[in-house]
Amino acid sequence: MARRKxxxxxxxxxxxxLARTGGLGDVAGxxxxxxxxxxxxxxxxxxxxxxxxxxxxxxxxxxPAIRVHLPAGDRDLAVWRAxxxxxxxxxxxxxxxLIDDPGLFDRPNLYQExxxxxxxxxxxxxxxxxxxxxxxxxxxxxxDIIHCNDWQTALIPIYLRDYDSVRNDPDLGGISTLFAxxxxxxxxxxxxxxxxxxxxxxxxxxxxxxxxxxxxxxxxGAILYSGGLSTVSRTYAKxxxxxxxxxxxxxxxxxxxxxxxxxxxxxxxxxxNPATDPALPAHYDREQMxxxxxxxxxxxxxxxxxxxxxxxxxxxxxxxxxQKGLDILAEALPELLKGHIxxxxxxxxxxxxxxxxxxLAEQFPRKVGLTLGFDDELAHQxxxxxxxxxxxxxxxPCGLNQLYSLRYGTVPIVRRTGGLSDSIVNTxxxxxxxxxxxxxxxxxxxxxxxxxxxRRALRFYRGDKETWAxxxxxxxxKDFSWRCSAFAYLRKYRLILKGDDxx
Length: 503
Known about the structure:
Elements: E1 7-11, H1 23-37, E2 41-47, E3 60-68, E4 75-83, E5 95-100, H2 102-105, E6 112-113, E7 116-117, H3 121-139, E8 145-149, H4 155-162, H5 164-167, E9 176-181, E10 189-191, E11 211-212, E12 215-217, H6 218-225, E13 228-231, H7 234-239, H8 243-246, H9 250-255, E14 260-262, H10 290-303, E15 313-320, H11 326-336, E16 342-349, H12 351-363, E17 368-372, H13 376-385, E18 388-391, H14 401-407, E19 411-415, H15 418-423, H16 429-433, E20 440-442, H17 447-462, H18 465-476, H19 482-498
Parallel strand pairs: 1-2, 1-8, 2-5, 8-9, 9-13, 13-14, 15-16, 15-18, 16-17, 18-19, 19-20
Antiparallel strand pairs: 3-4, 4-5, 6-7, 10-12, 11-12
Helix pairs in contact: 1-19, 4-6, 10-13, 11-17
């Protein structure tokens, strides 16, 4: 296929900064701009949630009502158009189409309340997916490919294949799809009685379709029906084909292994730039590192820690959950704190971990800094002020904080899994000699292994300052911009459009 300009629609249930719960929103908020900068015709579609700040993100009404027919009931969904933040002043601003129905999307949270999913989530996103397809007809803008993200958009490839009025449409019937898996744990599983309400034929409920142990599984259908598959790192693409990480999808993914590609997420290198970051008390770059020491002193001061320049400071920003390695950290951290280190944590999550870190902060008030919650400005300050950054995850599809850490000259200590494995090169003699060492990596999921590797990093920090500076400089030289990821996605799209996608 000639390298012609493509029309690409990215469909996502969240887009940073309009509405976000995690990494999916960051991808949807950054990748379209990178694709657009490479001269492709790109648009984004998402639900118009009530929590979106309409003053900060003004939108114009494009269509007051698009009628969506489903057995659950006909609904008129409006379509608004905003501009993807960060692209307003560019030569190619990226449009964001917002599918609006207050009954479906004007709620306190995106997916759940009080820890429980909204009971009508299947229908909420079924209407969103169908409205997206009919919107394209009304816009008279038919993309070459729809890049679908996670289960909330999984019905788009299913409807393109199994919903007669869509499949037989002369415009919509020719659209190709990529289905991106950000975390295979979240699959969109619903009771089987929902099927008739979705407008799908009864034979869609079968072992080789979207039936899954007596339930509907949206992700399963998208895996089977999409033109190609992607996930957020090469290692995670391999991991999800195994019983330990596939959560029941491993057999299907093995069957489509040739069509599954791992593409590491990028980062916003303008927003995450220690040379210009407005959240920092001082700026620095790879050539002029003096400002990092100022950031460390400010972080120590903020948390009431001893302001000692050569005291190693370990940072962590995370969801407080077992997946993030908090269970092995709970065992290892008290041992580490017996030594001369400092530790700061920003995060929220499971109550037992709130209690643990509160106890440690009380027990070691001049060594442990704690903020239970989320503070974006503080997140930037931790990345800049820490000497090392800890990510002992049980599994990590991609991870972003290790990439931010590299950019900010903060050496990651990570477990070898998913995107952590793909982005961090373990420090050893050979990688120091060839200039590839960027962090410290352990493999066994155990407190002992975490403790051993952290102590190894501490020995390097306290030992040869020139070697430590080299590790820092290696990391800061890495390019994890979205532009690199965008090129990889463009190659993937072209393979799908040629009809010979093989990873």
